[in-house]
Design goal:
Layout: H1 2-17, H2 55-80, E1 102-115, E2 118-119, E3 125-136, E4 147-160, E5 180-189, E6 203-211
Parallel strand pairs: 4-6
Antiparallel strand pairs: 1-3, 1-5, 2-3, 3-4, 5-6
Length: 221
């Protein structure tokens, strides 16, 4: 009995002298909750988006921003810079640019005053023909009622009159004052919308037809 008490006393003394870290740890009473957080965070909600770790959300935001930019300015810019085709041509008036001339038909008829034509080797004629102009087409209207000197070069001439000097041929020597003259050619013209000031129309005669004077009973050329 004495021995047993001695052993118990020795064991108790040994336990008291053993450090705390050397003692075996106690198992938790509830193993399932050993790693659970002790408390729940308390405070105002965070201002940081909770989807920052989701790449898809970032892409959606960027595409949405791009779509807003395109829809907010594309149509307005077209309207403000006058790209509407319907606006083209509005407000256009008479052009101050002299423009480029073009050739139109010139026709004049009248009576011969005098001529200084010379026959060329190729059968054409060059020189001057002075005509009292009586009739014209629209493009030659400025010469109507005037006496005009036409300077011609390499024109084709037709003599539709009799052999006045009876030399067996009809030519320049058969022409006389008062014979009828028909002139065909081209005259330079500008478009009506162009500025006509300072522009001089140049006439080029290509063909001349001479006829004998009309009989008193006829008013035709």
């Amino acid at each position: 009995m004495i021995v047993r008490k001695t052993l118990l006393a020795a064991s108790a003394a040994a336990l008291m002298s053993t450090p705390a870290w050397a003692l075996p740890s106690r198992a938790p009473s509830n193993p399932g909750t050993a790693h659970a957080p002790s408390t729940t965070p308390v405070g105002p909600p965070s201002t940081t988006p909770n989807n920052t770790n989701n790449p898809g959300s970032a892409n959606r935001n960027s595409h949405a921003n791009k779509g807003d930019k395109g829809s907010s300015g594309s149509n307005d810019n077209q309207g403000s810079n006058g790209s509407n085709p319907g606006d083209k041509g509005k407000g256009k008036g008479k052009s101050s640019h002299p423009g480029q001339s073009h050739k139109v038909g010139y026709v004049a008829r009248g009576t011969l005053v005098k001529q200084t034509l010379t026959k060329n080797a190729d059968g054409t004629y060059s020189g001057e023909v002075e005509v009292e102009v009586m009739r014209t087409n629209h493009h030659a209207a400025a010469d109507k009622g005037k006496t005009v000197i036409y300077k011609v070069m390499n024109v084709h001439v037709t003599f539709g009159l009799p052999d006045a000097n009876n030399d067996g041929s009809v030519g320049l020597d058969d022409l006389a004052k008062g014979d009828r003259v028909h002139l065909n050619g081209k005259i330079a013209a500008l478009a009506k919308k162009c500025d006509q000031s300072g522009f001089t129309a140049e006439t080029t005669i290509r063909r001349i037809i001479f006829h004998a004077p009309a009989s008193p009973a006829s008013n035709k050329d």
